[in-house]
Predict the structure.
Amino acid sequence: MTPSDLLTDELELTGRITTASNATFLGTIGELSVVYKPVDGEKPLWDFPDHTLANREVAAYLVSEALGWNVVPRTWLRKGPLGIGMVQLWQDVDPEQHAVDLVASDKLPATGWQTVLHGQDESGAQVSLLHEDSIQLRRMAVFDVLVNNADRKGNHVLAMPDGHRFGVDHGLSFHEEHKLRTVLWGWIGQPLSEEEIDGIDRIITLLDAQLGEQLSQLLSIAELTAFKDRCLSLRKNAVFPGPSGEMPAVPWPLF
């Protein structure tokens, strides 16, 4: 299916995801399964401009592509049965894999995981939030810092059967003010790898070319300027940052 077909072929709705905060539908375009979020179905938020979440989702995909890390599934804007909206290719996850998990604190795995925080569950038992210590999630954590992701929940990390990890639900991103809320805090203070720095360098270069022009159609001038500043700051410091400011460090709920 060509890019033109994705924009013009009929988008047929097949269901609705009722647990989503905003109107979110399942659909098909030809043989492809997609997620469709119409702009008119976005609920007003106190801290984000109205009717901008779809643009932010597409902007996140463009940054993912520029990084070359395939963090975000293919995402675009188009008309649908309920008006213009964000459309994203559906991903069939592996239900047996969990890239982010909540486990009993006395049963933490010895290797392969990073612990984010400790707490108590509803019964008072000690539990710990942890995530994989993997290249895929390191890339996603870098991506989240750059786009200022305010809502990286555990269920927004999709574990694919082949080991790849996708990130989804990026409507709450690119705010001009610091909003980073994520469950991927496992590498605080650790230096970025050469490959991660190269990815940031690609973004900085492309912001003066096609990427900057594309993002200018989706974000405000202030948001685009703040994005550039975050890229330059992370490149200069070259370490995973920790929480800062008055914002909660993690989203709620965590999953």
